[in-house]
């Protein structure tokens, strides 16, 4: 375990609070804090114990030490701490002035102020966790919905990286054998058992594929699900948006095609964030302003991960409904078919339209705010059909991870094709090395300082 120079930072959010926590980590963190702590001798206390006392300023000319604050100091001895170094957590009163005084006092004793993410970087360097987990710490701190919080927690607990590490080690053993074959040059030797190698590569790809596929869900969880509401003018899209957001965000009007601007807002359902996008409708443009609106609608539909198709149950012609269903189906996006104005239609009409659509319709009345819970449940269910979200299994939320997962997969696919076509060992070794490079960068076994700096600089100070 390495203990680096002592660093300190405020670990809690800046601003006024009941308490604030300052974290100190590194060589001599405990004895340094002890120099201006009055209470028990911290250097003689066991790990994971908390001690009440006061922190003191340097003695003035008359030898008097003024009190900075009454604090509770918790000590963690290496390697049983977050960074695996000696760590002191000082809980003081949450005033900006006190925090600054304590940090200044620490720097007087030779402690350096930490850079963003430096605590987590040390934890990573000391093998506390791998890079995927370190990045999960950042995501956990930044998570603002239940689902993104759960995804980050799963990764922090080891997620997919442990499994990949084992497979990577097995692949390294094979690459060593293939490279040994290269040393024999012209001689026709095969140390690496080709069938076993193929099997291993297939196994790795089997682990990679659900992870790669989870990225779109994972990304949605982290960044929200872009959801578009489409339908003909007067279907009630603006009314629905208002009902869902419970505020007057959209212009409701009796004139067809007045919702010209695309309005975006967020809706949280079951801990999932839906980014709602209202649109100008799907009908043919009749004037220029509307044309811009429709162009943007189609753009938004391309950007959306989920489509809410809303139709006017009172006024839609049965053939139009059939065409609309066909149209939204061909968009290839997951969608929900929503029938509006339930308050104004009778059971016979409802049945007729259901027969024509020949798929489930969620019926609502946007104006009367009825059955909106069914609509919300359907939205949530659409996103949660991905089993990973329900079971809490690993979901890839990070673009860097996604890049290396697909990089590994592509290299392995090439290597397998190579095996099938009987390529020479040097070609095989090249693809395998590319796969290993991606796998290593994923879990942090291969890192460059630049990469580490860029990852950890995204953290906030004190993490
Ligand atoms: P948009 O063009 O699709 O955005 O449609 P609007 O939200 O502007 O609504 C068009 C018209 O339908 C307005 O007069 C609304 O009051 C009316 N409307 C919307 N929802 C309902 C509903 O649930 N029931 C009834 N009866 N009328 C509705």
TrEMBL record:
Keyword tRNA processing among UniProt keywords: yes
One Pfam family it belongs to: MMR_HSR1
PROSITE patterns to which the protein is assigned, alphabetical: G_TRME
Cofactor(s) named in the record: K(+)
InterPro entries: G_TrmE, GTP-bd, GTP-bd_TrmE_N, GTPase_MnmE, MnmE_dom2, MnmE_helical, P-loop_NTPase, Small_GTP-bd
Subcellular location: Cytoplasm
Binding site for GTP: 234-239, 253-259, 278-281
UniProt remark on cofactor binding: Binds 1 potassium ion per subunit.
Gene3D superfamilies reported for this sequence: P-loop containing nucleotide triphosphate hydrolases (3.40.50.300), Probable tRNA modification gtpase trme, domain 1 (3.30.1360.120), tRNA modification GTPase MnmE domain 2 (1.20.120.430)
Biological processes, Gene Ontology terms: tRNA methylation; tRNA wobble uridine modification
Single GO term (MF): identical protein binding
Ranges of residues in domain TrmE-type G: 224-384
Annotated keywords: Cytoplasm, GTP-binding, Hydrolase, Magnesium, Metal-binding, Nucleotide-binding, Potassium, tRNA processing
Positions of Mg(2+) binding: 238, 259
Residue positions binding K(+): 234, 253, 255, 258
EC primary class: hydrolase
GO CC annotations on file: cytosol
E.C. no: 3.6.-.-
Subunit and partners: Homodimer. Heterotetramer of two MnmE and two MnmG subunits.
Family: Belongs to the TRAFAC class TrmE-Era-EngA-EngB-Septin-like GTPase superfamily. TrmE GTPase family.
Function: Exhibits a very high intrinsic GTPase hydrolysis rate. Involved in the addition of a carboxymethylaminomethyl (cmnm) group at the wobble position (U34) of certain tRNAs, forming tRNA-cmnm(5)s(2)U34.
Protein name stated in the entry: tRNA modification GTPase MnmE
Organism (species): Spirosoma sordidisoli
Taxonomic path: Bacteria, Pseudomonadati, Bacteroidota, Cytophagia, Cytophagales
Gene it is expressed from: mnmE
């Amino acid at each position: 375990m390495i203990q680096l120079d002592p660093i300190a930072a405020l670990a809690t959010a800046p601003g006024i609070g009941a308490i604030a926590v300052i974290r100190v980590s590194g060589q001599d963190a405990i004895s340094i804090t002890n120099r201006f702590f009055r209470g028990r001798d911290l250097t003689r206390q066991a790990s994971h114990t908390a001690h009440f006392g006061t922190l003191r300023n340097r003695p003035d000319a008359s030898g008097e030490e003024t009190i900075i604050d009454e604090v509770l100091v918790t000590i963690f001895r290496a390697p049983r701490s977050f960074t695996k170094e000696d760590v002191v957590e000082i809980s003081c009163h949450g005033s900006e002035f006190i925090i600054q005084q304590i940090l200044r006092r620490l720097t007087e004793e030779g402690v350096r102020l930490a850079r963003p993410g430096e605590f987590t970087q040390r934890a990573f360097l000391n093998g506390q966790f791998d890079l995927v987990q370190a990045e999960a710490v950042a995501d956990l701190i930044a998570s603002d919905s239940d689902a993104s919080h759960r995804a980050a927690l799963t990764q922090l607990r080891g997620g997919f990286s442990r499994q990949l590490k084992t497979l990577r080690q097995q692949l390294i053993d094979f690459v060593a054998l293939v490279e040994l074959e290269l040393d024999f040059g012209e001689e026709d030797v095969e140390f690496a058992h080709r069938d076993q190698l193929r099997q291993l590569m297939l196994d790795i790809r089997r682990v990679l594929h659900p992870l790669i596929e989870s990225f779109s869900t994972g990304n949605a969880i982290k960044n929200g699900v872009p959801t578009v509401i489409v339908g003909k003018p007067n279907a009630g899209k603006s009314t629905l948006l208002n009902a869902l957001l419970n505020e007057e965000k959209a212009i409701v009007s009796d004139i067809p095609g007045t919702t010209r601007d695309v309005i975006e807002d967020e809706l949280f359902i079951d801990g999932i964030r839906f980014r709602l996008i209202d649109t100008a409708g799907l009908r043919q443009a009749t004037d220029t302003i509307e044309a811009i609106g429709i162009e943007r609608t189609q753009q938004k539909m391309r950007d959306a991960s989920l489509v809410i198709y809303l139709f006017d149950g009172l006024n839609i012609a049965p053939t139009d409904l059939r065409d609309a269903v066909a149209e939204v189906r061909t968009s290839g996006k997951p969608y929900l078919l929503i029938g509006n104005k339930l308050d104004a239609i009778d059971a016979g009409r409802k049945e007729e339209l259901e027969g024509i659509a020949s798929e489930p319709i969620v019926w609502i009345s946007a104006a009367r705010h009825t059955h909106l819970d069914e609509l919300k449940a359907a939205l949530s269910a659409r996103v949660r059909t991905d089993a990973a979200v329900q079971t809490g299994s690993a979901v890839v939320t990070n673009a860097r991870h996604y890049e290396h997962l697909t990089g590994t997969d592509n290299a392995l696919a090439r290597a397998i094709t190579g095996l099938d076509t009987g390529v020479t060992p040097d070609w095989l070794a090249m693809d395998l090395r590319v796969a290993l490079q991606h796998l290593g960068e994923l879990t942090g076994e291969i890192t460059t300082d630049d990469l580490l700096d860029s990852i950890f600089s995204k953290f906030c100070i004190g993490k």
